[in-house]
Amino acid sequence: CSCCGHKKINLSLSERMFRCEQYGCERDRDLNAAVNLAKADEYAVLT
Q1: Is residue 21 within 8 Å of 11, Cβ to Cβ?
Q2: SS3 8
Q3: What gap in Å lies between CA 16 and CA 22, rounded to an integer?
Q4: What predicted TM-score, i.e. pTM, was given to this entire model?
Q5: How much is the pLDDT for 42?
Q6: Contacts for 1 with CB less than 8 Å, ≥ 6 apart
Q7: Cα–Cα distance between 47 and 11 in angstroms, integer?
Q8: How far is CA 38 from CA 14, 17, 19, in A?
Q9: In terms of Cα–Cα distance, which of 28, 31, 43, 21 is closest to 5?
Q10: Which of 10, 20, 33, 46 is deepest in the core (most CB within 10 A)?
C-alpha cells in the first residue's frame, strides 16, 4: 500500500484495483506501484 506500506501477497493480474486490508486505501494497482517506486529510497531492477 502506497499509503501505509502494507504488502498484499496474493494480488492476481485480474485485480486492477489495489485495496489495502489495513488502511482501507483503494487505488489503481499501477498507480499504487508507481507511487511506491517514487517513495522508495533504493530498489533493484530484476531481469
Answers
A1: no
A2: coil
A3: 18
A4: 0.73
A5: 79
A6: 7, 8, 18, 20, 22, 23, 25, 32
A7: 21
A8: 24, 19, 19
A9: 21
A10: 20
